[in-house]
Amino acid sequence: MSINPEQPIKFSPMHRLQWEEAQQKFVILYPEGMVELNQSSAEILRLCDGAHNLPQIVSELEQKFEASGLTHDITAFLEIALKNGWIQQH
Questions:
Q1: Per DSSP, what are the bridge partners of residue 35?
Q2: Structural domain boundaries of the chain?
Q3: Residue 45 backbone dihedrals phi, psi, to 5 degrees
Q4: Full-prediction pTM beyond 0.90?
Q5: Widest Cα–Cα separation across the chain
Q6: Strand (E) positions, the chain?
Q7: Which listed site, 42, 49, 78, 81, has its alpha carbon 20 to 30 Å from 90?
Q8: What is the rounded distance in angstroms from the CA atom of residue 79 to the CA atom of residue 77?
Q9: How far apart are CA 12 and CA 35, in angstroms?
Q10: Would you say residue 1 has pLDDT above 80?
């Protein structure tokens, strides 16, 4: 599976992205457990709302962090997220 840059990306309804006060970080909760996220991963996943596609996510994050050249890193993370079932594309 690979990310289609044209299709919107949506967080999986089988998972929940939430802030965990105890860990002081965002986590993905699912029936079998929990995945702790670093800040970058959480920022990417928070934009997986079904309204943004890959170029829009990259553009928003490059503006937010005043950076450029993030396409490869964001795409690589989203490929892993897709493989793990954390996100979906239809």
A1: 28
A2: 10-88
A3: -65, -30
A4: yes
A5: 37
A6: 10-11, 16-20, 25-30, 33-36, 87-88
A7: 42
A8: 5
A9: 14
A10: no
| CA 5 remoteness from chain centre | 14
Q: Is 43 helix (H, G, I), strand (E, B) or coil?
A: helix
Q: Are 43 and 61 in contact (CB under 8 A)?
A: yes
Q: What single-letter amino acid sits at 51? A: A
Kindly report the three-state secondary structure assignment for every residue of the chain.
Answer: CCCCCCCCCEECCCCEEEEECCCCEEEEEECCEEEECCHHHHHHHHCCECCCCHHHHHHHHHHHCCCCCCHHHHHHHHHHHHHCCCEECC
What is the tens place of the pLDDT at every residue in 35-63?
999 999 999 999 999 999 999 999 999 99
CATH topology of domain 10-88: Arc Repressor Mutant, subunit A (1.10.10)
8: which DSSP letter? Answer: -
- Reduce the DSSP state of residue 19 to 3 states and report it: strand
